[in-house]
C-alpha cells in the first residue's frame, strides 16, 4: 500500500490540506477530499475536457495531473467561479442559451469558456471552436455552447462598460 503525503493548497480561494497517495490524480483527490463533483473523469486520458480545472490560473486536465503536484498551488474548480446566489457570467450564459443537454461536460466547458474569454473577450465562432476543441460533448450541443460563449462575452463586455462608467462618474464627482 502506498503511503499518503499531506499537501496544502488553496482550493477556490481557501486554504486546504489533504492526504494523497503518490499515484492519485487531481480528479480523484478533489472528489474524495472536498466533494468537488463538477470535476469529472470521463476518458481518463486528457482528451475530453470533463476534468478541466485551473492550477495557478491555467486550465489542466485533472485526470492527468497528479494531486501531489498542487502542493502550494492555487486550484479552482467550476464551484469556485460563482455561487448559487451569484453565478458567473459564463455560468449564467450557459443556462440562458441552454449550452448543455445531459450536463456531464458542462463544468469543463464552462472552465474553458471562462479562460477563453479572459484571453480573448470577443472571440469569433472559429476561435471558440479552436480554443474549446479539447472539450467534447457527447450530446453534440455545440451550437448552444458556442452561443453561450458569445452571450457570456456580451455580459462581460457590458459589465466592464458599466464599471468604466462608474469609475468615470466617481472621478468627476471626486
TrEMBL record:
UniProt KW Transcription keyword: no
Record-linked PROSITE patterns: 2FE2S_FER_2
SUPFAM superfamilies per UniProt: 2Fe-2S ferredoxin-like, CO dehydrogenase ISP C-domain like
InterPro entries cross-referenced by the UniProt entry: 2Fe-2S-bd, 2Fe-2S-bd_dom_sf, 2Fe-2S_ferredoxin-like_sf, 2Fe-2S_ferredoxin-type, Beta-grasp_dom_sf, Diverse_Oxidoreductases
Pfam families: Fer2, Fer2_2
Key words, A-Z: 2Fe-2S, Iron, Iron-sulfur, Metal-binding, Oxidoreductase
GO MF annotations, alphabetized: 2 iron, 2 sulfur cluster binding; metal ion binding; oxidoreductase activity
Every 2Fe-2S ferredoxin-type domain range: 5-81
Native organism: Alicyclobacillus macrosporangiidus
Superkingdom of this protein's organism: Bacteria
Name assigned to this protein: Carbon-monoxide dehydrogenase small subunit/xanthine dehydrogenase YagT iron-sulfur-binding subunit
Amino acid at each position: 500500500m502506498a503511503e499518503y503525503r499531506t499537501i496544502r493548497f488553496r482550493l477556490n480561494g481557501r486554504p486546504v490540506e489533504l492526504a494523497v497517495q503518490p499515484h492519485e490524480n487531481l480528479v480523484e483527490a478533489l472528489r474524495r477530499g472536498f466533494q468537488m463533483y463538477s470535476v469529472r473523469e470521463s476518458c481518463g486520458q486528457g482528451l475530453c475536457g470533463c476534468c478541466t480545472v485551473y492550477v495557478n490560473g491555467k486550465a489542466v486536465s485533472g485526470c492527468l495531473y497528479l494531486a501531489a503536484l498542487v502542493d502550494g498551488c492555487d486550484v479552482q474548480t467550476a464551484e469556485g467561479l460563482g455561487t448559487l446566489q451569484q453565478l458567473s457570467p459564463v455560468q449564467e450564459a450557459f443556462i440562458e442559451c441552454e449550452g448543455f443537454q445531459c450536463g456531464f461536460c458542462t463544468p469543463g466547458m464552462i472552465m474553458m469558456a471562462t479562460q477563453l474569454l479572459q484571453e480573448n473577450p470577443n472571440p469569433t465562432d472559429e476561435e471558440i471552436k479552436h480554443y474549446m476543441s479539447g472539450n467534447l460533448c457527447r450530446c453534440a450541443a455545440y451550437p448552444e455552447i458556442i452561443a453561450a460563449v458569445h452571450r457570456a462575452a456580451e455580459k462581460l463586455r457590458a459589465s466592464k462598460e458599466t464599471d468604466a462608467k462608474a469609475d468615470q462618474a466617481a472621478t468627476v464627482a471626486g
